[in-house]
Amino acid sequence: MEKARAYLIISGRVQGVFYRAFTEDAAHLLGLKGWVKNCSDGKVEALFEGEKENIEKAIGLCYKGPPAAKVNNIEVKWEDFKGEFDTFSVRYF
């Protein structure tokens, strides 16, 4: 399996709707590492590392989000795998 890394910027109604917790759960379910955080402009950023196929599945889940979310767009930037994370976490900064 191919290892990959993807940086996402998610826009829409994605703050105050448990979007970060949803993303963290999806990452753990798929064995991905990285982080997710809120941005000051109302968007959410996420970085996934792991098997490319599982990252693609996570991106699909991010389009759905939790029930109260409404995702308008996800910008995805594929990067080279770095293997710099031990787990997936919610960042608060």
Summarize it.
With 93 residues, this protein is an alpha+beta fold. It is 27% helix and 42% strand.
Task: Give a description of the structure.
This protein has helices at residues 19-30, 52-64; strands at residues 3-13, 33-38, 44-51, 70-79, 88-91. The protein has 93 residues and is of the alpha+beta class. The chain has one domain (13-91): Alpha-Beta Plaits. β2 (33-38) and β3 (44-51) form a beta hairpin. α1 runs antiparallel to α2 (52-64).
* Number of contiguous helices: 2
Q: Poorly predicted ranges (pLDDT <50, ≥5 residues)?
A: none
**How many extended strands?**
5
CATH class: Alpha Beta
CATH fold description: Alpha-Beta Plaits
Termini distance? 33 Å
Shape: globular
Tell me roughly what share of residues is in helical segments: 25-40%
Mind telling me the C-alpha Rg?
A: 12 Å
Determine the mean pLDDT: 97
Main sheet: strand order: 4-1-3-2-5
Query: Approximately how much beta-strand content do the residues carry?
Result: 35-45%
CATH architecture: 2-Layer Sandwich
Structural features:
single chain; 2 helices; alpha+beta; five-stranded mixed β-sheet; 93 residues; Alpha-Beta Plaits
How would you summarize the topology of this molecule?
Elements (H helix, E strand, L loop, with lengths): L2 E11 L5 H12 L2 E6 L5 E8 H13 L5 E10 L8 E4 L2
Parallel strand pairs: 2-5
Antiparallel strand pairs: 1-3, 1-4, 2-3
